[in-house]
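Q: Please design a sequence for this.
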């Protein structure tokens, strides 16, 4: 492709609203342009990278036995109401009415659509297992779109769905897709981890997220420093063995703590460490109120709380609701003297508390020297807190460390949730009707593109891995006005194309400095510069990511280039 004949609008300055490198560089290098908040157009080079990522995904999906199809983005409300997700999905689901006032959703995901198709077309165990996938635009009404392609309102996703006659069959397909996802992200050149995850609004259990390691990631990965264990921080179980202090119980005492609201403020005021106080938070779990107690230096994990109660909704109670139930506002809550109307549940660490402080359920007052069993009763103890760095790894090997990650893929064992709700069944070999078992597997294709840039860039611009680069070679003529340079440039352009090498030819009548700066910014793996030795047939060859630079005669060029490409394949 000749650069003079394509849309490649590079920018010298960093756009004011671009906070992270991928957003900045994709805009500056002319790969994308914002159309609306959280909505982007892919310009020609951006589309080429997108297509290469898609092709890697397609090859691995096909290898895993999945069949590609295409489903509508516009989905009727009736399908979503069959599963109950029309009411439960939340405000991220984009809803609209047609001219006849019929309700639709713009597809945030496609479980309902694919289940309805398979329900109507598959009726025998002989046609199972079946795995189907698509690459399609998804829509989610993000409250705060940000970070360019990492959190948008419109994005490109590969979603796959598998249908089975048993959970054992689901396990087999899950393992294939898990392997395929690893292959996809390795082929894209990414440094990633597969981590244990929460299924969220998708439903189901036994899920893994594929996280690209990056400081701009919005998710925290808890991983072992000596094993392969890794989990989203929300899902990492705590296996700490607590030791009870060998102190004598002291007399319970109520003390005034005026204007001390936070755990740190109370601890400082009373002169003890955070771990020597109890934190009490009132949660509304579906329609039930629960007082949750943790140690002062621990944080309540609302995902664990949701999973413990198998709840649809978990949220903090309002201060008004809390006062009506307990008689005190935030900052003064505690487990002593709580009404029977409120269930009290605590993290395991609370069981080992000795002479700790806690709210007195009276504004501006706390108890000191509180002890479980003697002074208050806990209905249930459970693992309710977030894991912390330094905690034992849940697999028993090493200790936990944290890293930030960008979620680029997620695999789920959905089980029978959607199939039961929508009546997707099959006849077994005895002619008996059974509910299908399902799996779901998603890759954020446009998000993967951004994640690649987050890991592959330097101070000059993007450094695309060869497998996903928009072109293999960037061919530049220093001075297109000079006949010898223009003629050699034109000749090499044809030679490279005929050799099956993808080439972007900068034939513009621009200054050399502009061409070099744009080339570094765009980040194509190999650069060939036609300059002052063009008449002799010599060019300059440069590897973008390593900076390696050599002079070559045109007769050696294809051989040398193929060697580099084979070594970096």
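A: Design:
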């Amino acid at each position: 492709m000749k650069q003079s004949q394509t849309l490649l609008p590079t920018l010298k300055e960093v756009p004011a609203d671009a906070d992270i490198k991928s957003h900045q560089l994709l805009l500056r290098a002319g790969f994308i342009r914002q159309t609306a908040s959280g909505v982007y157009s892919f310009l020609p080079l951006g589309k080429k990278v997108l297509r290469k990522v898609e092709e890697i995904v397609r090859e691995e999906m096909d290898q895993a036995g999945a069949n590609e199809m295409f489903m509508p983005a516009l989905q009727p409300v009736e399908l979503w109401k069959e599963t109950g997700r029309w009411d439960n999905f939340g405000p991220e689901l984009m809803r609209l009415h047609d001219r006849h006032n019929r309700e639709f959703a713009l597809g945030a995901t496609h479980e309902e659509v694919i289940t309805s198709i398979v329900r109507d077309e598959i009726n025998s165990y002989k046609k199972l297992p079946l795995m189907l996938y698509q690459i399609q635009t998804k829509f989610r009404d993000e409250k705060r779109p940000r970070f360019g392609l990492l959190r948008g309102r419109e994005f490109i996703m590969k979603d796959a769905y598998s249908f089975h006659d048993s959970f054992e069959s689901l396990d087999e397909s899950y393992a294939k897709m898990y392997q395929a996802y690893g292959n996809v992200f390795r082929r894209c050149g990414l440094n990633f981890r597969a981590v244990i995850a929460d299924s969220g609004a998708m439903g189901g259990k036994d899920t893994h997220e594929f996280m690209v390691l990056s400081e701009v990631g919005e998710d925290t990965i808890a991983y072992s420093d000596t094993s392969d264990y890794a989990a989203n921080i929300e899902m990492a179980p705590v296996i700490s063995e607590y030791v009870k202090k060998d102190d004598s119980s002291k007399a319970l005492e109520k003390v005034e703590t005026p204007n001390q609201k936070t755990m740190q403020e109370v601890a400082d005021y009373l002169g003890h460490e955070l771990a020597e106080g109890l934190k009490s938070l009132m949660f509304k779990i579906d329609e039930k109120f629960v007082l949750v107690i943790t140690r002062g230096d621990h944080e309540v994990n609302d995902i664990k709380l949701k999973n413990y109660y198998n709840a649809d909704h978990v949220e903090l109670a309002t201060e008004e609701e809390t006062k009506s139930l307990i008689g005190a506002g935030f900052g003064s809550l505690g487990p002593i003297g709580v009404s029977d109307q409120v269930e009290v549940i605590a993290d395991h660490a609370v069981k080992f508390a000795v002479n700790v402080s806690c709210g007195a359920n009276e504004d501006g007052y706390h108890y000191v020297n509180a002890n479980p069993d003697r002074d208050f009763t806990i209905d249930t103890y459970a693992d309710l807190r977030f894991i912390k760095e330094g905690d034992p790894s849940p697999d028993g090997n090493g200790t936990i460390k944290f890293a930030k990650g960008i979620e680029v893929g997620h695999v789920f064992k959905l089980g029978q949730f959607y199939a039961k709700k929508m009546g997707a069944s099959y006849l077994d070999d005895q002619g008996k009707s059974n509910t299908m078992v399902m799996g779901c597997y998603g890759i954020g294709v446009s998000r993967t593109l951004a994640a690649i840039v987050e890991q592959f860039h330097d101070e000059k611009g993007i450094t695309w891995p060869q497998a996903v680069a928009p072109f293999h070679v960037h061919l530049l003529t220093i001075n297109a006005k000079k006949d010898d340079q223009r003629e050699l440039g034109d000749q090499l352009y044809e030679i490279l194309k005929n050799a099956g090498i993808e080439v972007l030819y900068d034939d513009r009548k621009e200054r050399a400095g502009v061409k070099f700066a744009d080339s570094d910014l765009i980040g194509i793996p190999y650069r060939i510069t036609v300059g002052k030795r063009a008449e002799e047939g010599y060019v300059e060859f440069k590897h973008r990511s390593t900076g390696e630079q050599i002079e070559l005669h045109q007769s050696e060029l294809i051989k040398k280039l193929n060697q580099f490409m084979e070594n970096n394949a």
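Q: Thanks. Anything notable?
A: Residues 253-382 form a domain with the YbaK protein fold (CATH 3.90.960.10). The mean pLDDT is 94.
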